[in-house]
Write a structure and sequence with these properties.
Elements lengths: L11 H11 L8 E2 L2 H7 L2 E6 L9 H10 L3 H6 L1 E4 L3 H13 L3 E6 L4 H9 L3 E5 L3 H15 L2 E2 L6 H17 L5 E5 L4 H13 L4 E7 L4 H8 L24 H7 L2 E5 L1 H15 L5 H11 L1 H4 L9 E6 L6 H11 L1
Parallel strand pairs: 2-10, 3-4, 3-6, 4-5, 7-8, 7-10, 8-9
Antiparallel strand pairs: 1-2
Length: 331
């Protein structure tokens, strides 16, 4: 891996620098365990609770690192992004801490609880249509009008480095971990985790968890190139993005496998998080547990020796009305 460092947008050094930079502002999130879930899975599971992070999700790490990396002239003009969820809120909060403006392009139909977070943290919401082309077009217009700095939700080395700080903490908290299961969407989170974890412990396995209704990462791994989907269909609203040019090389080279899950499996894992672990997680956050409990994971001989598994509970921003409807539909 050392020889391939120049290929990637981040490395262990940039991730450690990010951790030093953001440490005064982030929560060092706890690792929870459950004997009941260990018994159900047949393994020792260690849940890294990013649902307890500021802003309710891991995204604050990367957003905070990106904002704190700006020079004074850049920061004065503010930041802009397009996001339907946790990155939007995280960037708003990071900008608020620094006292700079945050312009957030939000697609129509975004979860209300996540839009409310943006407003609560002082982000200036600018609406776009739901398509990626509309999001990018509106963001480009805001950039031209304000001179602000674009902070991409995942295809940015500063973001990847910030998200990788999760692995630094997790491997300090639980040294015996031999695999980490991470949700995958645009790939910022899993890229940072993989780069950090495999630098610290080269034998560790990194496993992506992805909805079957948005399985572009699984398809990309098989094809050996980025595959984008014309449409996605999954309850996991945080896992509908496509891989980026900076995240794909890391996913291609360092992610050992992608486990794809049906929405019903994700919902069942959410229930277990609520009922057994006593933790509020959104669908995207529960998918790692769903992966470990899936038949495709259990029956794969490649993972039999993975006895101590870290699972990133990536976020806990739940629209309770939608959640209740989902639970009722799953019965």
């Amino acid at each position: 891996m050392e020889a391939n460092r120049e290929k990637y947008a981040a490395d262990l050094s940039s991730i450690k620098e990010a951790h030093d930079r953001i440490k005064p502002y982030i929560h060092r999130t706890p690792v929870l365990t459950s004997e009941s879930l260990n018994s159900i899975s047949g393994r020792s599971l260690f849940f890294k609770c990013e649902c307890f992070q500021k802003g309710g999700a891991f995204k604050f790490r990367g957003a905070c690192n990106a904002v704190l990396s700006l020079d004074a002239e850049q920061a004065a003009k503010g930041v802009v992004t397009h996001s339907s969820g946790n990155h939007a809120a995280a960037l708003s909060l990071a900008a608020k801490i620094q006292g700079i403006p945050a312009y957030i392009v939000v697609p129509k139909g975004a979860p209300k609880c996540k839009v409310d977070n943006v407003i609560r943290y002082g982000g200036k919401v600018i609406w776009s249509e739901a398509t990626m082309s509309s999001r990018e077009e509106v963001a480009s217009k805001v950039l031209q009008e304000t001179g602000s700095v674009l902070i991409h939700p995942y295809n940015d080395g500063r973001i990847i480095s910030g998200q990788g700080t999760i692995a630094l903490e997790l491997l300090e908290q639980i040294q015996e971990i031999d695999a980490i299961v991470v949700p995958i969407s645009g790939g910022g989170l899993i890229s940072g985790v993989a780069l950090a974890a495999k630098s610290i412990k080269p034998s560790i396995r990194i496993i992506a968890a992805e909805p079957k209704g948005a399985d572009d990462a699984a398809q990309s791994k098989v094809a050996g190139k980025i595959i984008t989907l014309p449409v996605t269909n999954t309850i996991a609203d945080g896992l509908r993005a496509s891989l980026g040019g900076l995240t794909w090389p890391v996913v291609r080279d360092l992610v050992d496998d992608v486990v794809t899950l049906e929405d019903c499996e994700i919902i069942e894992a959410m229930k277990m998080c609520y009922e057994i672990l006593k933790v509020s997680v959104e669908p995207s956050g529960a998918i790692g547990l769903a992966a470990v409990l899936s038949n495709s994971f259990r029956n794969n001989p490649s993972w039999r020796d993975c006895k101590n598994i870290g699972i990133v509970l990536s976020g806990g921003n739940v629209d309770l009305g939608s959640l209740w409807d989902s639970f009722k539909r799953s019965k």
